[in-house]
Amino acid sequence: MSNIELVMLSSRLSRMAPSRELAICGVTAFVFIVCSLLAVGIPTDAEREKVPNEGSCRVKCYMEPDCVSINVGPLDSRGEITCELNDATWENGHESDMKELVNYTYLGIENHCHSHSCIGSSTCQVGFTSKGFRCKCRPGGVGDFCEGAATSCSEIKSLDNSARDGDYVIDPDGEGGLQMFRVSCDMTDKNGVGVTVISHNSENRTLVDGYEKSGSYKRDIKYMRANLTQLTELTKVSLHCEQSIKYECYNSRLHNGNTTVGWWMSRDDTKMTYWDGASGINQCACAVNGSCARSDRRCNCDKDDSEWRFDSGLLTNKIHLPVKQLRFGDTGVARNATSNETGYHTLGKFRCYGIAQL
Ligand SMILES: [Ca+2]
Ligand SMILES: [Ca+2]
């Protein structure tokens, strides 16, 4: 057992004034490094607390997040000892803060938080786990040092059931690879499973007018804070993804006989002609349940009459989503002098939820 002379010159906990103490260190314990102290000066009463024994002083240090060492003073006439909590330790480069103090003992916690830094706004907690520390991540942060991000809002919710609605950073493909990105998490929708919500530039009801040729109206969908490659990864880690779509029409068709007039492009640039569900060719929701405005048509808008009609649905195919582009036509020339041709499209936010078994 080597003897090293030490002084904890100042205790930096805000509620403690600087004190002058010094230790001679001997034994290194598992958690505490024990030092015998030699006197230089006795701290004033304001700088110390009285506790029944050394164990009480240790407990106080454990309870105080910033405490990493303690000075234990001599037994007084009332059978109590002096306990001082410090936020610095000799073994972490604070040798100059150590001075001798008679009848005092210095005990320093082995502070692994000094040698490992938790990332961002996470908190390092001393003494937890076999590593001697634990990074307490903010919601969405993962990894030993909170250096990573959860793959989706559903994973965030599964890791922390108390996580609330708000913006979070996710990294669907995990460490490395694609950049993590910021999303909005709806932690109450879908029975509170955690829904990742991606906004885009075309959520408002938008006029389509003056585009006669099939697909001549083009609207590129730009998703907020994420590109399609990143969103593709989100679909892979999610159990479900969906996006609502609607086309309101006045004399504007989605199909003209066998010709497709309006469609949407999948994320990988494939022409899609179903307007509800996960698959289909040239069909709207009304074709599935037999409610189309004309029984011999597969979309309400295909009736192409001077009535406002609409076709809408919820797209649910993870392979096709999110929608990359909207294409419409038949809004150019009036079929007769007394009627116009117009449409409006409305595309919902892109939502994914549930955790896919990869
Ligand atoms: Ca990544
Ligand atoms: Ca028309």
Report a brief summary of the structure:
This protein has 358 residues and is mainly β. It is 11% helix and 34% strand.
Number of strands: 25
Query: Which structural category fits the helices and strands?
Result: mainly beta
Report the helical percentage.
10-25%
Q: Beta-strand level of the residues, as a percent range? A: 25-35%
Largest sheet: 8 strands, antiparallel
Low-confidence stretches: 1-46
> In angstroms, what is the radius of gyration?
34 Å
Q: Provide mean pLDDT, rounded.
A: 82
Small molecules held by this entry: calcium ion
The total count of helices amounts to 6
Terminal CA distance reads 54 Å
General form: rod-shaped
Which key phrases capture this entry?
disordered N terminus, single chain, EGF-like domain, mainly beta, Fibrinogen-like_C, eight-stranded antiparallel β-sheet, 6 helices, binds calcium ion, 358 residues
What would you note in describing this structure?
Its main location: secreted. This is Neurexin-4. Keywords: Collagen, Disulfide bond, EGF-like domain, Membrane, Secreted, Transmembrane, Transmembrane helix. Disulfide bonds join 118-135, 137-146. It is found in: Secreted. The chain has 358 residues and is mainly beta. It is built from six helices and 25 strands. The chain has helices at 54-63, 112-115, 153-159, 189-192, 228-237, 285-289, and strands at residues 4-6, 23-28, 32-38, 49-51, 69-75, 81-86, 102-109, 123-126, 133-136, 141-142, 148-149, 166-170, 181-186, 195-198, 206-208, 217-220, 238-250, 255-256, 259-260, 263-265, 271-272, 308-315, 325-328, 342-347, 350-355. Strands 12, 13, 14, 15, 17, 22, 24 and 25 form an eight-stranded antiparallel sheet that branches. A seven-stranded antiparallel sheet has the order 1-2-3-7-5-6-4, with helices on one face. A hairpin with a 2-residue loop joins strand 18 and strand 19. It is rod-shaped and about 100 Å long. The structure holds calcium ion (CA) (2 copies). Residues 251-253, 304, 330, 335, 341 line the site of one calcium ion.
